[in-house]
Amino acid sequence: MTQTRTTRLERGRGALGPALELVHTGRAPTRAVLTAELGVTRATAGAVAAELEALGLITVDARPAAAGSQGRPSHRLSVAPGGPVVLAAQIHADGFRAALVGLGGRMVATAPGCMTVPADPSHIIDAVVEAGAALLRETGRRCLGAGLAVPSAVAEPDGTALNPLHLSWPAGAPVRRLFTEALAKAGVPGPGEGPATGVTGNDVNLAALAEHRHGAGRGARHLLCVATGHRGVGGALVLDGRLHSGSSGLALEVGHLTVNPAGLPCHCGSRGCLDVETDPLAFLTAAGRTPGPEVSLLQQARDLLRTEYADPAVRAAAELIVDRLGLGLAGLVNILNPDRIILGGLHRALLDADPERLRAVVADRSLWGRSGSVPILPCTLDFNSLIGAAEAAWQPVLDDPLTVLG
To answer: Are 371 and 125 in contact (CB under 8 A)?
Structure first.
């Protein structure tokens, strides 16, 4: 490295993390855009981009791309296609999925696993980590971290699954510790000499983070995400690019917002919560369908909407769920004033089936909805919780790539 480049890099070292995040999220496709976004000189931006390339994280095209109507040609920037990955894992009511995910939210390899989730969480955590370790052995990719998404609020700072209501796990299961131990047993390496350290989070929180960086939430400052899983309902709020997790990681438990006071008893002890009034089981029951054991409840509900929406009973059930969901969203709009709402799981399918009904309910029942409609959009990423688990694992690198990799 030349003395001039060293000086420029020292001047711009604090810009390495922000620069990597700009390329990672697609907001800096060229070096000219990177220069403008960082507010540095062209020379400093060039040194920063060169250092990120030397670390194996991004690629800088050797030849400048053609300029548009204004400005000079500029070098294109992209994430390195053969660069390092993180191991992402997700556990849900019907099993698990493991994946290797690179920068840019690009899924390199994935392996699903179906199994009855045992009461001891260590068994399924060991299984999903071993599946991820096998992917690392097969691909030979360098691993920089690991993230796990679980269908429960994850309390901080201990990383315990506080309320895994739709699993048979005990409340307070130490999922972060079990995940880190499984990574060590499977020999999953971290960026240094030792094994990877696992990070864990609630599946909907992580889905919201992924959608904000790579999907339907891009560009939103105050993003509200509400989604169904295989069972239950979760929510998340992303403020200025960061998850709002509250004082101990337990914020936005929207599944326990009451939308039908005389409704079904909820696992939380209340009645008529979104969790039991608008999830896949609630929809199948309202439509008069008996769930089968062959595929997940979420898939059965989606299939019913897609293939039998013309059936009056199915349409009436969909309208009932939409009205209850709209009531819950209206309350959240009144409290949070988001600039965008995104919906996942069954809620995404219901929005696709009748978008105007849901938007009308939210506008009619919310103060801010009446003064100006809040955009309600479907989530766009496949496996967004899995990609979100990867985002959590990538965060230390995005914060300070030189310290992690230097």
So the answer is: no
